[in-house]
Structure formats: C-alpha cells, structure tokens
Amino acid sequence: MKYAILGAGMSGATIAHALHQQGHEVIAFDKGRGVGGRMSSRRTDHGAVDHGAQYFTAQTPEFLDAVHLWMQEGWVQRWGDQIVASSGDERRLSTSVQRFIGTPIMTGPIKGLLAQVETHTQHTAKRVYRQDHAWWIQVAELSEAIGPFDAVISSVPLPQLPPLFDALPPQWLAQWSGITMTPCWALMVDWGRAAPDAFDGWFVNDTFIDWIAQNDRKPGRIGQPHWTLHATESWSQVHEEDAPESVIAQARQWLIDRGFGPPNTITAHRWRYARSQGEAAEAAYWDEGLRLGVVGDWLGGGRVEGAWRSARALLKHL
Ligand SMILES: Cc1cc2nc3c(=O)[nH]c(=O)nc-3n(C[C@H](O)[C@H](O)[C@H](O)COP(=O)(O)OP(=O)(O)OC[C@H]3O[C@@H](n4cnc5c(N)ncnc54)[C@H](O)[C@@H]3O)c2cc1C
Hints:
With 318 residues, the chain is of the alpha/beta class. It has helices at residues 10-21, 61-73, 108-113, 170-175, 233-238, 244-257, 297-300, 303-317; strands at 2-6, 25-29, 41-44, 47-50, 76-79, 83-87, 90-93, 99-102, 118-120, 125-131, 134-139, 146-149, 151-154, 180-190, 201-203, 209-214, 226-231, 265-277, 285-287, 292-294.
C-alpha cells in the first residue's frame, strides 16, 4: 500500500513509522518548516526554545514501553527534578509524576520515528480528493497535485480537517461535534544574563501565567538563559486575537511586578489549537471503503500520550 500521512507531529510520525516498518510505502507531509507539530521548538539566535509541549508523561504501560525504547535510542530523557508548584507565596516540589522530554529538543522522538520515512515539510495540504479510486493531494506550495495514493491518514487538529476534504463520513462529524480545541499564548523570555530564579519548571497557579520552564536547564539545550511562559487557557481564549506586542507587554509587566526584573527580549507565539476538550467514541477512525484514516491527540485523550495512543489505535483497524 502507498500511504500519504498529513501532518508530522507525534500522531502522524507514530503511524508513519509503524506502516513503514510493516513494509508499506509511506510519504508524510507537513506544512511546518520542520517536523514535530505542537512538540516543536522555536529557533532563536541563542539556541532552540521549546514553546509548545514542555514535557510529557506516560500513564499507560504501553506508552511507557515505547518511551523506554526511545530513551535507549537517545531521543528522550527523564527531566524535572526541580518542578515546583506555587500557591500564593508558598512553593512546593511537584514529584507526583515522572516527566520526559525529547532531546536535544522536544522533536527528538519525532525525528527518530521519521528517520526512515520520506517526509516533506513546507507542504500544506489544501485539498485532498479521490479520483479513479485513488487519493490525490493538492499542496499549496506546488502547482501539480501529488499522488496517486492508495490511502490517506490525517493527523491534523480537528478544526483543520474538514476543509481539506470535499466530504467526510457524516457519522464521523457527528461523533466529533462535542470536541473543541483551545488556544495557548506561549512567551519565550530571553534574559540575556543569569536567570533570576532556579527551577526546571514552575506551575504558577495564581495568575494569567500558569507555567514557566527554564529551557536552558533541560538536558541537551544550549544557549543563554531562556524561560518559556504559557498563559492560562481561559486568558488565552479571551486574548486569542490580541496583537503579540500587547501580550508581550503584559508578560513583561508581570515579570517586573513579580520582582524578576526586565528581561532582554520576549517573543510570543499563539497556538490556536493547543489542547483538546471533549471525547469521541473512537481513539482513531478508519473507513475501509474510502481508505481514509484519522488520528490525533484530540481523539486519543489529549496530550502527547493521547496522540501516540490514537496512532496505535488506528494500526489495530488497519
Ligand atoms: C502550548 C502547548 C503546551 C503543551 N503542553 C503539553 C505538555 O506539557 N504535555 C503534553 O503531553 N502535551 C502538551 N501539549 C499537547 C501536545 O503538544 C499535543 O497533544 C501533541 O503534540 C499533538 O500531537 P498530534 O500529532 O496529534 O498533533 P500536532 O502536533 O498538532 O501535529 C499535526 C501536524 O499537522 C500539520 N498540519 C496541519 N494542517 C496541515 C495541512 N493542511 N497540511 C500539512 N500539514 C498540516 C501541523 O503543522 C502539525 O505538525 C501542549 C501543546 C501546546 C500547544
């Protein structure tokens, strides 16, 4: 079988890797400059900064087994001895779960999974259609459609999926109607000097910033002190359409008010579809007649583990 995989984040990379291992011809496409999706990092003058997923956990034995293999490959490491959670002025160590990060940046496992898979970045699927019993993909960056493919598997976030297809099975759309995806503003803070506090990560809890990570303290990261701040889901929803300059100004003021002093520079990135809410009946969808599959974190229970889980669930259908 010749498969096209739309999207090269955790779910797309997992299914692409597995199908390639089974001997199928697999080609992955992603609109981004690199692979990784919401696990990607922003390149700066002072190294790469993780601005999407900060770490991941492994709640199920199956995913933990996969993570252990990735650790042996050098794609992943344990991280987070110094994660603190605060409430008011009180801070305590958060040791309840084991956390993992990709190395040397978050995309470590994605790049590992896709190492043998033909992957085309900066290929934005615009229209995916069937012609003469085969699939074709119209890509925004090219004048000719790419194909034919025997099967297509989408791993794009739910809101970006229906516009790609002329029609999707109506029962799928009905089952996904309760799922929404919410935004998150991420801020990358370059201190230009020693960072004003020492921790790996910090659940802030009482403000519009709910998470801070000290990026340069993660194993494998190089460069000068950098923090990644995430705004809360509710604040990000209210301020979704704000200009980045306005979000940066509020983050700068917050850092000053908190006594950290002014940073060197701050850059902002809005993740429009950061996290999913709601559940579908299945963790992955497959239509044998159409030879069309759908995976993604939004089907698998959310987060990195949910993306992996969804891809593994599709394999069972295939
Ligand atoms: C700010 C933030 C913080 C997070 N924190 C955590 C965390 O701490 N722990 C955790 O476990 N999870 C976290 N997550 C969630 C986690 O990153 C995701 O659940 C997971 O990475 C999703 O993987 P995926 O493959 O389902 O989707 P994605 O990673 O979104 O992959 C989909 C891919 O499809 C591509 N794409 C979309 N449309 C097209 C198109 N038309 N043509 C071609 N390609 C297309 C995109 O470029 C993307 O690469 C966080 C996410 C964000 C944004």
